[in-house]
Amino acid sequence: MKFLYFIFLSTLLFISPSNQSKSNYLKDLKLELQTKWPENRTINLVFHGHSVPAGYFNTPIVNTLASYPYLVLQELKTQYPYAVINVINTSIGGEDSKSGEKRFESDVLSHKPDVLFIDYALNDRRIGLDSAKVAWEGMIEIALANDIKIILLTPSPDTKIDLKDNDTVLDQHSNQIRGLSEKYEIGLVDSYELFKKVIIPGKNLESLMSQGNHPNEKGHALIANGILDYFN
User: Fold this and answer.
1) What pTM was estimated for this model as a whole?
2) What is the CATH topology of the domain spanning 4-11+41-228?
């Protein structure tokens, strides 16, 4: 897998004023990732969400190794050659956060995540903002009680929704997720904003998508690049 997309996309992304806080959020974990055998331990990254982190491209095709959890893993192994890193994907295609919360303790906590990534907003449109907030907060609070670092993701796009419109249902879910990140002082990868910053100058959204609501490898690389900010 080549990471030329990271080099290309990084030139398009604006430098966030929160980059310093991102670099500090996983400070202790980054030190552990540099630890050599025999003092090192296995680091567990758990991705909990719907079809996008699960790796669905053109349904029913699942392109696991080109999805953002595994793009992240490959780049982390370049940065941290001594680390043993498990990517554990508990995502289920078609699921929303209400269903994800119901199986959270059995399917997520059982893996003892060092970092938990939550990505449900695309499918949360069908349950609404209020129900989604309850479910996200339930998962966040359980994870924090177990001393787990959490990084929330705003949605990747849907080609049926205009990214240049700032008051869509996906904008509303994005705003709610940003608010949860601030409330609980946890990590955020603003995928929706990352796509907007590429599309608004004129890039075609379809060039980043494999089907209407599933990114292709370039789109997944954009999300992965946002995650990797926390590990740099």
Assistant:
1) 0.91
2) Rossmann fold (3.40.50)
